[in-house]
Design goal:
Elements lengths: L1 H21 L8 H33 L1 H46 L10
Helix pairs in contact: 1-2, 2-3
Length: 120
C-alpha cells in the first residue's frame, strides 16, 4: 500500500514536470534535450530516494521519530509549493471552461423564451 502512495505520486510529479519542461520553447522538438531533462529529473528523484532514508535515520537517532515526520511534512509542503505554479497553469483552461458553462446555463434559466411550454 505504501508503494502505491509513494511511487505513484513520484511518477505523476516527475511526468508532469518533464512534460512541462519538454514543451518549453527553448527545446523546440529536440528529442535529446527532452531526454536530458527527463534524466535530470529522474536522477534527482533517485538521489532523494537514496539520501532521504539516511537523513530520516539521522534525525530519528538525534531527535526521535517526531522530527522525522516533521521533516517529511516540510518536504511535502516545499514540493507542493514548487508545483503550485504548474498546477494553476494547468487548471486555468478547465476553470475558464467551467465558468463559460455556468454562464451559458444561467442564461437559459433566466430567459423566459427558452422555457418549454407545458400547456398543450
Amino acid at each position: 500500500m505504501c508503494g502505491v502512495f509513494v511511487d505513484g505520486t513520484y511518477a505523476i510529479i516527475t511526468t508532469a514536470i518533464s512534460s512541462d519542461l519538454g514543451t518549453h520553447v527553448s527545446l523546440k522538438d529536440d528529442l535529446n534535450a527532452k531526454a536530458t531533462v527527463t534524466a535530470i529529473i529522474d536522477g534527482t528523484g533517485s538521489l532523494g530516494a537514496a539520501f532521504g532514508p539516511l537523513i530520516v535515520g539521522l534525525l530519528t537517532d538525534k531527535s526521535g521519530w517526531d522530527s522525522a515526520f516533521y521533516f517529511l511534512m516540510a518536504s511535502c509542503f516545499v514540493s507542493a509549493l514548487f508545483l503550485t505554479r504548474l498546477t494553476i497553469k494547468e487548471m486555468k483552461p478547465w476553470f475558464k471552461k467551467l465558468k463559460h458553462t455556468r454562464k451559458s446555463s444561467e442564461g437559459t434559466h433566466n430567459n423566459p423564451m427558452s422555457a418549454k411550454s407545458t400547456t398543450g
